[in-house]
């Protein structure tokens, strides 16, 4: 990571992160109080999380006071693509079992290739090819059982 | 000469046809993954771990496969540094300084050949070092009790700043975050559910493999989406690698120095491969002074960091295998693999499973030779892979990660978890908070807490047991020394950058 990739006016990100982490540390400390210490345990289940949340909280506060450098945040177009990929992968995870591996993977590879910048005429053939070859590779060559299409289970 | 006996036995294990084949596959895949721009060794090994599980391989075989991938990635990382000026990971950064100018001058093949030999020598020196020194460390570590182990974990986290060469505050924040995430799930000692908020999927804790594939591979894909799209990479003439191999004879002293420096920085906890390649380059540059043309395509500027880098990668295996404390990001991932196979590295591993340890060491020697041989004819092919369009490569990477994680438990929940860790990793990397300490915290937290509690139950609640033995005081002193050295090093670097 080279120095010029860092933008110097982005201390705001660090401050927000510091605040979130400080809140997290506080929450972890507070919640650790509810862990019941058993009989004959000098160190109960709450001690170690508390030991960790103290430096986490202090360092997070330090980050708010003395923020460092952040990388440039993405523009609107890139952000849309990233959200698109996350939504697609989330949907893929959700449809993997109800639809079966092959149909959901074919849709996922084609759309994923589009999101990574392929044209339709590139994404369609190569997406189908990739989806099918992954199926053959995983199901037959590596012997990893994958969810079948509904009604087609062998 | 007990070591030689062990090693001979190890070779007998590693030379079994199945293991040889796995080493070959691992070296090839590793070189390919390492060569892909942006996908360094960490991502490569992370991606393949879930797959290695699904092969149903025995632990020794899986370990041989992944260690070959690890060494292969270290080899492959230099290809994109030299040909495309894109370092696959941080340690490969120094190689771009002279490697890319060489490639632009039409000496790409020479640079690749030379760096293959330098990598080979570096890795071999480190593997010999591993053979000699790991058993010595084991002799010391066998006397460790829980308090000493706790001190050792403190040492690992105190020196974590060096792994990542980022800001100290941020490295420690990342480590604490990882340690906290590591406590999620049912507490093994008291059976109390911690931070699960009623989600029964979290009762087993956060799966390290799901977390690290998310933190590394998924976040890499997200980062990739915002880079400039498909800038046509000028295809460079690579040429033959043979002249580079000959050139390496002229650079023999450079390679030797680089290997030793790299090895030492690899063994130091927390220092790792980045420091290895950086130090060997800088020292070599200073050694030759005005006589060298460093930065303009001096072959020695390729040989030194490559030898250092690969020697450090091997050296980092020493603390990982003998103490269970990883010295670099990738060894952290290998540790994740071992832990998920219910193998706890440490002195006991050497006593109880010498087959595995020495088979692994022998596999490293064999893998090295294989990589060198593979690199002569195949370097052109590997360089071609770089020119495959990213719209094809990135979906392949994403889907392999997806199927691998899904097949661990056949659970969509793991996939959502992986995506969540992907977003976390992305945000952390944007904030310049390193992700390796998060993984280390997640991995080592359980053992650290366990040792703390054991020590405390031995002393029935007296905290002073933690610093009551000479060994643990020594470890704390060492931690403080390394911490101060790291701070001074960071100050020097930031001065130089200004």
UniProtKB/TrEMBL annotation, chain A:
Organism, scientific name: Halomonas eurihalina
Name the UniProt record assigns to this protein: Tripartite tricarboxylate transporter TctB family protein
InterPro entries the UniProt entry points to: DUF1468
Keywords annotated in UniProt: Membrane, Transmembrane, Transmembrane helix
Name of one Pfam family that matches: TctB
Residues covered by the DUF1468 domain: 16-147
Transmembrane segments: 12-32, 47-65, 77-95, 101-117, 124-144
Domain of life of the native organism: Bacteria
UniProtKB/TrEMBL annotation, chain B:
Domain named DUF112: residues: 20-440
Transmembrane segments: 20-39, 45-71, 111-134, 140-160, 172-193, 205-225, 260-283, 357-382, 388-408, 415-445, 465-492
Record keywords: Membrane, Transmembrane, Transmembrane helix
InterPro entries the UniProt entry points to: DUF112_TM
Family matches, as Pfam families: TctA
Name the record gives this protein: Tripartite tricarboxylate transporter permease
Species of provenance: Halomonas eurihalina
